[in-house]
Amino acid sequence: MTDTAELKDELALPAEGEHLVRTFDAELQVGDGRTIDLRVVPYNEIGTATDPPDYRPYPERFLPGAFERQMSAANRVSAFLNLEHEQGVKGIVGHGNEFRDESDGLYGSFRVHNTADGDKTLEMVNDGFLRGVSLEFAPLRSVRNGEVVERVRAHLDKVALCRTGVAAYQSAEVLAVRTTPLAEVEIVKPLPDELLERLQSQGVAPLDRLSITKMAWDESLDRFDDEQYEASCLLVREGDESAKERCAIPVLEPDGQLNVNALGIASIALQGPRSGLVGISEAAKAAAARKLLRYYRLAGMDAPKSTLIMARK
């Protein structure tokens, strides 16, 4: 590996600490809120960068933890959101609300301001005109691994939404426009295979990030096949019976979407006598309540106090 001092001479790179820009293509999921979730930059993915002074293309990769020091600082959410790198206070349309440094990249949640410019930005995002995510950052430590410049430590300054993405990093993307901040959404990391097998042997299924629907809830069993019904239910008992006999309290649609209108019904079902709860231990009910709480968080909703109490048992 070649450290930063040698990189500067060999590639004519800008000085460490100077602000650089990376623009990414984005895939949009439309919502109705003022909070924009996005993956600011992916880790361990090689992209093509061009910087002053000579703008010669070179391969670049951000390493996991590149922003770790900044994320642990008190002002970690001070980054602003602007439109196509328009500078100055007038160009700011939102501010960072929460950042998460995950194994596959840096994720951010930005609150779009309730202004004319903020409304215009949201409209263009939802209509698909703003499809690029552009990162402004200061490289603090870089090394060269073969031909690839690796960003070991960097400081995030601003994030811009752009009309056209230059595909420096294919997997940087706008994740959603939502009504609730990223801090209130549980993002479940992929589990190691060994741990996943142990959990599954105990009847525990990890939750993934889910699509959410507000359509009217229909509990009709004939809508589900056995596999869909078992995946939908909070309570799953072992046995030779069919899933519709072993399982109870569904909350997911057959296609896997979380139905927010099923959550209240599920909370009530966990509390009272119901045929689906016959033979269910208090420990199993508590586990179901904890899973239900996670669904509430994924939906950005407050769970009933009774469910909170049951989950602690």
List the keywords.
2 domains, 11-stranded mixed sheet, 15 strands, 313 residues, two-stranded parallel ribbon, elongated, 30% strand, alpha+beta, single chain
Summarize the structure in words:
The protein has 313 residues and is α+β, with helices and mostly antiparallel strands. Helices cover 25% and strands 30% of the residues. The strands form three sheets. Strands 1, 2, 3, 4, 5, 6, 7, 8, 9, 10 and 11 form an eleven-stranded mixed beta sheet that branches. It has a two-stranded parallel ribbon with strand order 12-15. Strand 9 and strand 10 form a beta hairpin. It is elongated and about 70 Å long. The relative contact order is 0.15.
- Terminal CA distance reads 53 Å
- Quaternary arrangement of the chains shown? single chain
Mean pLDDT: 75
Overall shape: it is elongated
Relative strand content: 25-35%
Please give the count of helices: 9
Q: Look at the helices and sheets and give the structural class.
A: alpha+beta
Spans where pLDDT lies below 50 across 5 or more residues: 27-32, 179-191, 203-208
How many structural domains are formed by the residues?
2
Strand tally: 15
Concise structural overview:
The chain is an alpha+beta fold. The chain has two domains: 2-179, no CATH class; 193-311, no CATH class. 25% of the residues lie in helices and 30% in strands.
